[in-house]
């Protein structure tokens, strides 16, 4: 069948060439001329210009759009067509010279092969039809599909009534801070900000038929699924029975369990939708590379779809994200790049900045860009919201959802505003993020939070905050406590951000009456956090759990204070000491680690023998370099400021039970004591190797008291037990 189609296609191309010659002859005799363009020395004209009418309709042959010409008039047969690459004939008198075509301007562009060199039937779909530069949408030859993502184009194309963020349409370019991009080419410095104002044309009351986007409808779940991607969507709506009653709610409390998606989170929906919309727009082709900056769940959704469809996938994510997410991504075949958690979104070192740098370096790569891609909220507008309305029979009084990129709450909110206008939309934003409104809600000294996947330090383009009726802030302690309650009391194996949403829902739903209904979106599963909030040790380490909250039998030494240990005077080094000298000191004293302090005794961090040796062997540092370059862990003062790679301090008044939890994670613990110093002059305090003279008056400083290891704890316990037996 393909051979017949290809033969018919070649015959029609010859017929069109003959018509071109007939039209040219008619133009010479009667002065009529169609649109023309010179391509590589050959005159090419649109067949429609030579035909008064076009009988038949356009049909795709072998992947190429062709036009069925009208029946030819009777008369002498036309001359055979000249070779496609023959020299151009001189322009006849009375005719204007042809304008240069695209190929004449750009020799790198593809040229149409001669009719005699027809490719084999298997290659029919790769045939190229060259469009003249001025061909419009009604041309016989289609314009080649733009294979550039909307997030990758440099300038917005203003079209009335058309959303500039839909697949295939360009979007406005942002400006980056190039002062920090030293060593990068001008092309590598180009990136598109994820916080540009949205130009979406959605309006409340505007029919979906006028939408510029492709919309999907809910489908029945087949008994046998063709692949795992069909298991994305149609998640269950579950009644919350115990937590609502415990907090005195009168309304019905329901949970939309998005962790039942194939990849374990609500982001599976947007991962699949963005990928399939890019395929529909002709942007992605087999062998292309997908790059995405993400907190992990979107990456898992994209990696899952990429594994099924055969794309290379690179995920760029901050270091604070759990190792479980990294392991799942690697198992799905994705490549992972980690970036500093503290890097701001517009920094070249951020996950957004690194993703754009990789995009410029890797050929045929695309950033689907969840922060700007209209497919993100559309996935929830078309499916998630429709599922909720069907499951609730259209009766819904409140919806509570957390915000990360904002696609979930925007897409669901828009649909509910259309079909259930009385429903109140509640937004959840963690402390330390700035998505909430009014801006006063975002005022806090906190910059780091442990809950993953929600909150940002910029406003993503896809987030429509006008859809949110009221914002609430959540904190880490309540989020993890409610996540644990959902697991232990309701049997819902959800993640930390689900706890964030539920902690706000029990507050916001207090205003609802009996007979009313509140739906809470639970975004992801506990699978990604097995080593985090699900672990008592991690919760104790971060200060979210107290020892008395863990109902287990404690050993006799559990509540003994750390000050009971016999700790020797600590060995410390200054940051200016060389790596070579530090290694010599550690070997002489028989120590494996040593604190690094400034001249006033303020703690900067720790260095370990193993870390220094590995850095030297890898060539990262030289023996003559200062030890400040290989500080193993930075020192943080309070548990709320502790990042995933921070050094955990322990005080003399802490218990040995807390010390034992730290020693199960680290090989050592740094024992500190606080010193209060009062002076009129500025108090120097080393922060990352620089001196801060802004502190005046009374101030607290944490000084090194000692370094304790598991051997020290075991020796103390063994010695006390021996003494007890003697008595």
UniProtKB/TrEMBL annotation:
Gene: CBS
Cofactor(s) listed in the protein's UniProt record: pyridoxal 5'-phosphate
GO cellular component: cytoplasm; nucleus
Protein's UniProt name: Cystathionine beta-synthase
Pathway: Amino-acid biosynthesis; L-cysteine biosynthesis; L-cysteine from L-homocysteine and L-serine: step 1/2
InterPro entries: CBS_C (IPR046353), CBS_dom (IPR000644), CBS_dom_sf (IPR046342), Cys_Synth/Cystath_Beta-Synth (IPR050214), Cysta_beta_synth (IPR005857), P-phosphate_BS (IPR001216), TrpB-like_PALP (IPR001926), TrpB-like_PALP_sf (IPR036052)
Entry's EC annotation: 4.2.1.22
One GO MF term attached to the UniProt entry: oxygen binding
Family affiliation: Belongs to the cysteine synthase/cystathionine beta-synthase family.
Organism field: Ornithorhynchus anatinus (Duckbill platypus)
Upper lineage: Eukaryota, Metazoa, Chordata, Craniata, Vertebrata
Quaternary structure (record): Homotetramer.
UniProt subcellular location: Cytoplasm; Nucleus
Region (Disordered): 25-44, 65-180
Gene Ontology biological process: blood vessel diameter maintenance; blood vessel remodeling; cartilage development involved in endochondral bone morphogenesis; cerebellum morphogenesis; cysteine biosynthetic process from serine; cysteine biosynthetic process via cystathionine; DNA protection; endochondral ossification
């Amino acid at each position: 069948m393909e051979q017949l189609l290809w033969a018919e296609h070649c015959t029609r191309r010859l017929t069109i060439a003959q018509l071109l010659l007939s039209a040219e002859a008619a133009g010479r005799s009667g002065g009529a001329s169609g649109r023309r363009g010179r391509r590589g020395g050959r005159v090419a004209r649109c067949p429609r210009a030579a035909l008064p009418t076009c009988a038949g309709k356009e049909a795709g042959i072998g992947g190429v759009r062709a036009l069925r010409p009208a029946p030819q008039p009777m008369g002498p047969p036309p001359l055979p067509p000249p070779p496609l690459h023959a020299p151009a004939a001189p322009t006849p008198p009375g005719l204007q010279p042809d304008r240069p075509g695209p190929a004449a301007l750009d020799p790198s562009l593809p040229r149409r092969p001669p009719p005699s060199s027809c490719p084999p039937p298997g290659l029919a779909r790769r045939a190229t039809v060259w469009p003249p530069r001025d061909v419009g949408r009604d041309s016989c030859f289609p314009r080649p599909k733009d294979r550039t993502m909307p997030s990758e184009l440099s300038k917005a194309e203003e079209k009335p009534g058309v959303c500039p963020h839909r697949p295939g349409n360009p979007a406005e370019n942002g400006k980056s801070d190039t002062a920090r991009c030293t060593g990068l080419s001008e092309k590598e410095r180009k990136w598109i900000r994820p916080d540009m104002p949205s130009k979406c044309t959605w309006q409340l009351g505007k029919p979906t038929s006028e939408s510029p986007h492709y919309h999907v409808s809910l489908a029945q779940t087949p008994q046998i699924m063709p692949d795992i991607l069909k298991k994305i969507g149609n998640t269950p709506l579950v009644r919350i029975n115990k937590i609502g009653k415990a907090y005195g709610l009168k309304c019905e409390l329901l949970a939309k369990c998005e962790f039942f998606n194939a990849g374990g989170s609500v982001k599976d929906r947007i991962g699949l939708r963005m990928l399939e919309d890019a395929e529909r727009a002709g942007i992605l082709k087999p062998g292309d590379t997908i790059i995405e900056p993400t907190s992990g769940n979107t990456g898992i959704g994209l990696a899952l779809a990429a594994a099924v469809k055969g794309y290379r996938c690179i995920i760029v994510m901050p270091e604070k994200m759990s190792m479980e997410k990294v392991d799942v991504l690697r198992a799905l075949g994705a490549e992972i790049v980690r970036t500093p958690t503290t890097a701001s979104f517009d920094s070249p070192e951020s996950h957004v900045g690194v993703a754009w740098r990789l995009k410029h370096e890797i050929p045929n790569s695309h950033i689907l860009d969840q922060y700007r891609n209209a497919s993100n909220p559309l996935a929830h507008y078309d499916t998630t919201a429709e599922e909720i309305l069907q499951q609730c029979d259209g009766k819904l009084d409140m919806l509570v959802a957390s915000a990360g990129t904002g696609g979930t709450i925007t897409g669901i909110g828009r649909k509910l505003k259309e079909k259930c206008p009385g429903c109140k939309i509640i937004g959840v934003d963690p402390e330390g993020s700035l998505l909430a409104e009014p801006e006063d809600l975002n005022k806090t000294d906190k910059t780091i939070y442990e809950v993953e996947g929600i909150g940002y330090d910029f406003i993503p383009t896809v987030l429509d905050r006008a859809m949110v009726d009221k914002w609430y802030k959540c904190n880490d302690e309540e989020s993890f406590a409610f996540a644990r309650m959902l697991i232990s009391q309701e049997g819902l194996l959800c993640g930390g951000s689900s706890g964030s949403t539920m902690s706000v829902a029990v507050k916001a739903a207090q205003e609802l009456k009996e007979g009313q209904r509140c739906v809470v979106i639970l975004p992801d599963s506990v699978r990604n956090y097995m080593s985090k909030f699900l672990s008592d040790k991690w919760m104790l380490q971060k200060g979210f759990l107290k020892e008395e909250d863990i109902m287990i039998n404690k050993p006799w030494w559990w509540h003994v204070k750390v000050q009971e240990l016999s700790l020797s005077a600590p060995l410390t080094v200054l940051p200016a000491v060389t790596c070579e000298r530090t290694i010599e000191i550690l070997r002489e004293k028989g120590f494996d680690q040593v604190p690094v302090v400034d001249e006033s005794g303020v703690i900067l961090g720790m260095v370990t023998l193993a870390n220094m040796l590995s850095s030297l062997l890898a060539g990262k540092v030289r023996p003559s370099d200062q030890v400040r370059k290989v500080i193993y862990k930075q020192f943080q003062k309070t548990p709320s400021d502790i990042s995933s790679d921070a050094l955990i301090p322990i005080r003399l008044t802490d218990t040995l039970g807390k010390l034992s939890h730290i020693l199960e994670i680290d090989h050592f613990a740094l024992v500190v004591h606080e010193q209060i110093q009062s002076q009129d002059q500025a108090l120097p305090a080393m922060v990352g190797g620089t001196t801060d003279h802004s502190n005046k008056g009374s101030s607290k400083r944490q000084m090194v008291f000692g370094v304790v290891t598991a051997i020290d704890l075991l020796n103390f316990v063994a010695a006390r037990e021996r003494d007890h037996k003697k008595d």
